[in-house]
Amino acid sequence: MTSVKQFQVTFDCADPERLARFWCEVLGYVVEPDDTTACVDPTGVGPRLYFQQVPEGKAVKNRVHLDVRVGTGLVGAERLAVLESESARLVALGAVRGELLIADGVNESCQNMRDIEGNEFCLD
């Protein structure tokens, strides 16, 4: 049995090139040289993101979402400050803030967000 070594994350969207540029900015990725509807991790570690145009708009909450890990290892006020700083940067790129979930003794704080086409993701 062969194990999977690589995968890509595919987004259905209205404007693939615009959404690819947004996610490149979020993650520090670069637009793939031969395909402006995809972005890749310049270090080669993270998965490729591919954006495909579809005719229908987003209708319901995502069943799968990305967690953008900006506060790994941080807790309390230090974690909240990093989440606030990064969410402000992403809002300037066109993202929208959702609910801020405060640490509850089991899970650390995280900031719910939506990208420029309404796809949910978390700053974690």
Which secondary-structure class do the elements indicate?
alpha/beta
H/I helix tally: 2
Unreliable runs? none
Largest sheet: 4 strands, mixed
Work out the strand percent: 25-35%
Oligomeric state, counting identical vs distinct chains: single chain
Strand order of the largest sheet: 1-4-3-2
- End-to-end CA span: 34 Å
Mean pLDDT: 95
Q: What order do the helices and strands follow?
A: EHEEEEHEEE
Q: Report the strand count.
A: 8
Please give the radius of gyration in angstroms. 15 Å
Helix content: 10-25%
Overall outline: globular
Written account of the structure:
The protein is an alpha/beta fold and 124 residues long. It contains 2 helices and 8 strands, in the order βαββββαβββ. The strands form 2 sheets. Strands 1-4-3-2 form a 4-stranded mixed sheet, with helices on one face. A 4-stranded mixed sheet has the order 5-8-7-6, covered by helices on one side. Strand 2 (30-32) and strand 3 form a beta hairpin.
Please render the helix and strand layout as text.
Elements (H helix, E strand, L loop, with lengths): L7 E6 L2 H12 L2 E3 L2 E6 L7 E6 L12 E3 L7 H18 L2 E6 L8 E5 L5 E4 L1
Parallel strand pairs: 1-4, 5-8
Antiparallel strand pairs: 2-3, 3-4, 6-7, 7-8
In short:
This protein is an alpha/beta fold.
What distinguishing features does this structure have?
globular, four-stranded mixed sheet, 124 residues
